[in-house]
Amino acid sequence: MQSLLIQGGVPLRGEVVISGSKNATLPILAAALLTAEPCVIRRVPDLSDVKFMGRILQSLGAEVSITGDTVQVQARKVKAFGDYDLIRQMRGSVCIMGPLLGRLREARVSYPGGCVIGARPINLHLKGFAALGAKVAIDEGYVHAQARRLQGAEMFLGGRSGPTVLGTANVMMAATLAEGVTIIESAACEPEVVDLAKFLIAMGAKITGAGSPIITVTGVKELHGAEHEVIPDRIETATYAIAAAATGGEVTIRGARPDHLNAVLDKLREAGVRVARAGTTLTVRHASRLKPVDLTTLPFAGFPTDVQAQMMALMTLAKGTSIITERVFESRFMHVSELSRMGADIEIEGPSAIVKGGRPLSGAPVMASDLRASAALVIAGLAARGETQVNRIYHLDRGYENIDGKLRQLGARIRRVNES
Ligand code: EPU
To answer: What global pTM score does this model have?
Structure first.
């Protein structure tokens, strides 16, 4: 296993280019299963989760080839039964269900487990499949959906914590090949859902309303091959913006979609960070004095749960009290104990973390058990005095393309080492 060694205290300066979005890429690759024709996806990030999705598609019979940041998928023939152990390893792989059900009227995958950020049920995905006429059964660790015919339907997909991103993606994909009209109410509005809809439309699907809470899909007989360029990763963008602010630096972020990040940019400005937008470029300059801010994570266009941990790392540096409330996932505070190890003063009260910021952080060996928590520890390490060792960085490699290389280019003293 590898870890990152960071000598903190160096302000980040320079330019960084944002990669394609992980969470848009995964369902878009799965959507290629909906047609026998070749699909070409560009601006695909080089991430272990993406490679893993490629392996899953291959295990279902698709041909997958990767050249640079372009992936070609052709699923001439595809089978409905996914490899249990392969699929079980990545929660995001649940989004192969919708395309398989749409194309073959049958899908069987291993039931995705919970993970460190919460229970992560799929009841809403299954509710949507059932509304389309599928029989859904959970048996011997598999979830099996089967339909003689898929019939468009009106459905409400809101759950306890609001809409579901992959649930919306899954049902939207299945509905493209159903008979008649499907209306998904309380659909997720995330830019990744919009990007998927754009790809499906390029494949011949009839979809309106993506990006709003009501999506309408009019089923078609078949879809064809298409080309698509994935949107820039808004979470990666936010992570570099926060890292610039935390280290007292100034960074120009290129190839981004600042319009996907208004909630984050607004909070950064409230904290005193100077943020300038110009087209696809974002320039972030540190605050003369960082101010504490309160925030609550919400579905899009609210503050993203995937940036909560990184923002908490920043708030440990702001003199005063910030209250950070997590409303999307039930237990996404894995970073708190590790940030505390670095000298942060944070208390958890129910769904909120109370951050008493302003004490300098000091480097320490830390370890996080999820992707965004690991990103928060890297930010803390960059801002801390002394050396921080972030262990188990395979989490970071799941979601941040070349994170150490990109940070080094910004002047960070960071290197990858093999854990002893
Ligand atoms: N939920 C249900 N029932 C369901 C599905 C979800 O109750 O059937 C609940 C969840 O437990 C959670 C909430 O609804 O409380 C939202 O979960 P959602 O389904 O939207 O999450 P997801 O689609 O499984 C994606 C991203 C996550 C991101 C969330 C929220 C991918 C591969 N994953 O997950 O990304 O946090 O949306 O925006 O797209 C990450 O990149 O680090 C990551 C975890």
So the answer is: 0.98
pLDDT at 138: 92
- The pLDDT tens digits of the residues spanning 111-128 come to 886 677 777 899 999 999
Q: Does domain 2-19+232-418 have CATH number 2.60.40.1080?
A: no
Cβ atoms 70, 29 nearer than 8 A = no
Residue 1 scores a pLDDT above 70: yes
**Ligand 1 neighbourhood includes 123 CB (under 6 angstroms):** yes
Coil/strand/helix, residue 22: helix
- Which string of DSSP letters, residue by residue, matches 178-208? SBSEEEEET----HHHHHHHHHHHHTT-EEE
- Find, among 241, 236, 264, 237, the residue nearest to 251 by Cα: 241
CATH code 3.65.10.10 for 22-229: yes
> Concatenated DSSP letters for 84-141?
HHHHHT-GGGGGGHHHHHHHHSEEEEEPP--BTTB----HHHHHHHHHTT-EEEEETT
Ligand 1, atom nearest to 119 Cα: 11
- pLDDT at residue 236 greater than cutoff 80: yes
Ligand 1 mutation target, pool 56, 97, 120, most atoms within 8 A of CB: 120
d(C-alpha 107, C-alpha 30), whole Å = 13
